[in-house]
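Hey, I'm writing a tutorial for new members on how sequence and structure tokens pair up, and I'd like a real worked example in the thread rather than a made-up one. If someone can provide the structure for the chain below, I'll link this post from the tutorial.
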Amino acid sequence: MDDSPNDSNAMISNFESLSKEFNESIPERETWSKKMDFLLSVIGFAVDLANVWRFPYLCFKNGGGAFLIPYLIMLMLTGIPLFYMELVLGQYFRKGAITTWGNVCPLFKGIGYCVVMIAFYTDLFYNVIIAWSFNFLFHSFTSELPWYSCNHSWNSPNCYSKIVSWNMSDVGGIYSQCALQMDINASHHFNPVSSADEFYYSRMLGFRNINGSATATIENLGKLQWEIVLCLLLVYVICYFSLWKGIKMSGKVVWFTALFPYVVLLVLFIRGITLPGSLEGIKYYLYPNINKLTKGQVWIDAATQVFFSLGPGFGVLLAFSSYNKFHNNVYFDALLTSSINCGTSFIAGFVVFSILGYMSCISGESIDNVAREGPGLVFVVYPQALATMPGSTFWSILFFLMLITLGLDSSFGGSEAIITALSDEFPIAGLLFIEFMNYYAASWGLLMAVSFETIVISWIYGNLWLNVPLTVSVYNNAGMPRFVKNIDDMLGFKPGFFWRFCWAYVSPVLLLANMIYGFVVHQPLQVQDYNFPDWMNVLGWIFAFSSPSIIFIIAVFQLFRFPGTTIKQ
């Protein structure tokens, strides 16, 4: 049944009184002790391991400096608008994700459950990565790093280690030449494997035996790695004691965990650019290959990196901002923290690729062969490089402390999102599972969740569907009256045309296009030389759709729960 203009006007005119009643009914809520506690919590959550291991590699893989074009476009048109939107929702409703989305639109309360489930999935594998970092940190307290040489029980006959001999001629403060000597025990083998590679896969994960073959598959999970189990327990203990007293405690912890990585990045940047071969690595990082921009996968990578890095769709931003004061300038906060996150990714690229250039120099391999994506970059390539430097123990301790603090911030955020949402609503084939959960459970669910978020806010909560013509209504402030009014109540000004147009049209269209293209070009997951069985890929898609499916399940439940003869009622 069509709605008359009078009905629409009545809905909009009644909103101010309803909004006032809602705000007066909100009980007193705990707030951040200082504004900086909130900002550092958001920065700490947004600036995570993806900034260090994923963004630099994606730049290298997708056209170097040219990748910044799709990255910045996706950042401006989808990332920052949705980042801003979630902060606004949390600050206005001052509740966790589940309750907030129930207030926004009872029919789509399932979005709250969906993002909490995504946060839970992500926390599961993210804490394991932090545990790996702790394990590396503990092994760094030795005079010779255990991944430096091949003289260990876990090393295979194919193992080789890199021992560097520098020609100390100094050109412009940078060593200009370098040479490599390999351990003689691997020089005649057909498939040499680095000592750092074997420490990670064989010693730490138990993923390979001494012959180099895999000891674990999805069908045969292998034995527990007790060092990792204990490190994982340590991670949960740290998270517990950082969150057990709420934001008053976590707001203090982030002063260290959010700021320390920047100190280490600065130190590693200065050290990196003084290494031989570093400039070649930086050239590879920045050299633009415009032809890459014609490939759809480049734009997919840009979109997923933006969402993984900024963090909309996890419920974390909403949870953090729910503890703000009502009139806090969340618009400024959104622009500041998202800009810092973007800048951190760019700077991390210099740090990573100066080291990759150095590794290329000492190994005689091209940077194409040295560079790796994901955990292999920070748990194989980087430790291998650190082991060859003077003072390797110091550099290794510093680097893995940085990874731990980067990871803990994000883990705090995920846990806070789950705790806040639930408390408001209801007062070792480890490597394979990490890759599996990252590929299926987080990526696809995240894109689908943020798509629903922007559609519901713009078209249902914002009443945009009541206004015709649509583009004109967005332009002249007639569109999205409820959400625009929320922002005006808090900040004293209305969001401009750019933000409303992105929320209503650009972000949903780009997200939908990315998902469709991703489905079309999808390839079954592969880790190292291991191909996941078909049934595991099917299970992966079940995981991918499990969190978004909650949206529809809750919608059906709400239809039966609330009175009325139409969906609108």
